[in-house]
Amino acid sequence: MQDAAHGALAPDAILTVDHLTMRFGGLTAVDDVSFSVRDRSITSIIGPNGAGKTTVFNCLTGFYKPTIGRLALRHGGAVHLLERMEGFRICKEARVARTFQNIRLFGAMTVLENLMVAQHNRLMVASGFSLLGLFGAASFRAAERAAIDKARFWLDRVGLTDRADWEAGNLPYGDQRRLEIARAMCTDPALLCLDEPAAGLNPRESASLNDLLRTIRDSHGIAVLLIEHDMSVVMEISDHIIVLDYGRKIASGSPENVRNDPAVIRAYLGEEEALPPEIAADLEGGR
Amino acid sequence: MATVTEASTPHRGTDVITAAKEAAIAAGVMAVLALPLIGFILVDVAGGVTLRTRFGGVLTAAAIVFVGRFVIAMLRGRGAGPIAHLTGLVTRRVAGWGAGRFVGPALVGFAVVLPVLPFSDRYIIDLGTSVLIYVMLGWGLNVVVGLAGLLDLGYVAFYAVGAYSFALLALHFDLSFWACLPLAGVFAALFGIILGFPVLRLRGDYLAIVTLGFGEIIRIVLLNWQDFTGGPNGLSSIPRPSFFGAPIGRSAPEGQTPFHEFVAPVMEPIAALFGGEWGFDAIHRIVWLYYIILALALVTNVFTLRIRRLPVGRAWEALREDEIACRSLGINPTNTKLSAFAIGAMFAGFAGAFFSARQGFVSPESFTYIESAVILAIVVLGGMGSQIGVVVAAAFLILIPEFGRDFAQYRMLLFGLAMVLVMIWRPQGLVSGREPSVRLHAERR
Questions:
Q1: Cα B219 to the chain's mean position, in Å?
Q2: Which residue ranges make up each domain of chain B?
């Protein structure tokens, strides 16, 4: 039932990935993966290290051009084929925002400036491509105030308002992670892709991350696609989970289904009886 | 607390030994280097050439290096060193004043009154003009290097494009300086975009090499395209900028009033007040040129300060920080880089047009690589992205060789030494510290 709703033809899917394959020379990092992301849902991609999760993200956000496959994003009555778009247009036009596994903030700029850069395209138009802005036109100043208000809204949400004028590079690690999410949200995304947002966070910070992601889904109605290793985050907030191993999709479904799926257990814990009994006994004896 | 003192006291002795060792090694290296450079000299004696030795000089050089190295090593032992501490304090103060709040207006005020100060003569005003050209170039390059983080070693190419644009337009189409100034900026900006396209994918060292090559290409084209640019002979008799249509000179062409007669109704009573007489003076042109470049430089300053606070300026800085993150936020890196190149180049074009108007003559010799290096040094020494730092560094780099004239052949040595010292003490530049383009909370002071 759950799976049927997420089939390739799901009517409420914001993102549909069909037969995505990414080869680097002889290495197939992602092999014929299909899945979809429902609107207003949190979908997680999990899998052991090297399973191809980040490669899927990089294909989605235009950093790689997929070898084979179709990545269709629907919102506002239009369909954007992400595999054909130039990198920066994926955020600008298809409205897919992302964060990075190794945080990529603008370190020498302040927290607020980071959020203003995220609203670049709107402000650029408001500033008349700098001409109006140079002469301090009132319309531009109003647009800039609106941008600051939006930044402030997200700073309040992630609890960084007091540190708005800090250099982003000087923030503690957990704050940097949250700032990156706030920055992605300032681009007004339709789909938010988060690459390991809970990496390096302590349990308290993970819990507040869960709340933040739920707010983004429920109050803002934005679909979230998540790569995560931290099962306390994944199992708690995901509506749907996709499991990758060696570039293939080995399972998908609700957290409950995935947790009990034998293929998933095998991928994480290894094959049962992988070693012949006599060798296993030798290894035991050798210790 | 007591244990700390105990631990550090015996350390002192080993410090001296380490410093002496380091100094001995440095002195040894100096001796080896100095042996061929200072130790032997070819002397022209009675029609032949003989080899003389100067081993005393080698020893002196080694001794100087030993002492210098020893002192540096000892100073380093005490944390950052007192001089670094002092300069750091001064520059933090300067940056702490918000740079533009107090020091900036004071410098502008000084620059405005400089020509009428009692000690100002032709030489001082000329020197001020030179400094201001480099200040303007430094501010222009700051957009490319300091804000957008694109290392450009061929900036002088745009300066050359501006200079030749004005010279050629003035000579062939008889256009005035004021008509050519915007055109020179536009041409230079176009060249900035032409250079920008092939280097869009390059960063850091690779970009530096390509821009270096571009600078040389422009110079070599100017050198070899005899029919168009006059080749190595350059272009001469370029018209000087007029004073609102009045040429500055003893006499004016038919139908025009020379400057001193043009302003006579205003200036004659003033001159009379001070018991002087108003008439033609060669210094008028120098002062007028000085004010033109001062105005151009201030326009550059205001423009770059404002554009930094606009979305495009923030996008430049974001591009410098992380290009991949920029793309993921929907910023078009191509347009952003090209706009930085174009705007940086445009100011070099203005400065170039002024340069050829001031000299009345241009040749490729004025646009060699060393010019690019000096402009880049101004930006780096001043502190990347700092407006006031550029002024300090430009004054420093132009005035040091001037004041060093008494030292004749050691002038450039002094210049190099000063640069090395600044980079040791202030690796982040003379005036560092970034002012955010926008604040959420009022600044606490």
A1: 19
A2: 2-79, 89-237+288-425
**Å from B215 to nearest chain A CA?**
29
Q: Give the tens place of pLDDT for each residue, B370-409.
A: 889 889 988 888 887 788 889 988 988 888 777 777 766 7
Predicted pLDDT of residue B16: 81
Q: Which of B331, B325, B322, B308 is nearest to A121 (CA)?
A: B331
Domain A2-95+189-286 has CATH 3.40.50.300: yes
Name the residue among B314, B318, B331 with its Cβ closest to that of A88.
B331
Q: Residue A86's CB: how many other CB atoms inside 10 A?
A: 12
Nearest CA in chain B to A104: B325
pLDDT surpassing 60 at residue B410: yes
Which of B190, B438, B389 is closest to A109 using CA atoms? B438
Q: What is the pLDDT of residue A1?
A: 38
CATH 3.30.160 fits B89-237+288-425, yes or no: no
Top-ranked range on mean pLDDT: pick from B19-28, B268-277, B294-303: B294-303
Retrieve residue A26's tokens.
């002889």
Q: How far is B39 from chain A (nearest CA, A)?
A: 50
Of A63, A127, A164, the CB nearest to B310: A127
| pLDDT the model gives residue B11 | 54
Decide if A104 and B325 are in contact by the 8 Å CB cutoff.
yes
Residues on chain B touching A130 (C-beta within 8 angstroms): 307, 310-312
Task: Provide the shortest C-alpha distance from residue B384 to chain A (in Å).
Answer: 12
Q: Does B440 touch chain A (CB under 8 A)?
A: yes
- What string of DSSP letters covers A110-144? BHHHHHHHTTHHHHHHHTTTTHHHHTT-HHHHHHH
Cα angle A128, B337, B335 (rounded to 5 degrees) comes to 45
Minimum mean pLDDT range among A142-151, B78-87, B297-306: B78-87
Domain range list for chain A:
2-95+189-286, 106-188
As for the ipTM of the complex, it is: 0.85
Any A CB within 8 A of B326 CB:
yes
How much is the pLDDT for B7?
43
Question: Looking at the DSSP assignment, which residues form a beta bridge with residue A81?
Answer: A72
| B314/A contact by beta carbon, under 8 A | yes
Please give the C-alpha separations between residue A157 and each of A53, A80, A187, B1, in angstroms, as whole numbers.
Answer: 28, 30, 15, 45
Q: Flag if B329 and A183 touch (Cβ within 8 Å).
A: yes
Phi and psi (nearest 5°) for A31?
Answer: -125, 100
Degrees (nearest 5) of the Cα angle B308, B314, B316? 90
* Residues in chain A closer than 8 A to B310 (CB atoms): 127, 130, 133-134
Single pTM value for the model: 0.81
Interface test with B, best of A109, A115, A167 (most B CBs within 10 A): A109
| B330 in reach of chain A (CB within 8 A) | yes
Considering only CB atoms, A117 lies closest to which of B307, B315, B436, namely B315
Q: Which of B127, B78, B151 is nearest to B400 (CA)?
A: B127
> Cα–Cα distance between B274 and B284 in angstroms, integer?
18
Lowest mean pLDDT among B45-59, B184-198, B218-232, B271-285: B271-285
Residue B52 touches partner A, C-beta closer than 8 Å: no
Which residue type, as a one-letter code, is found at position A126? Answer: A
pLDDT at A10: 57
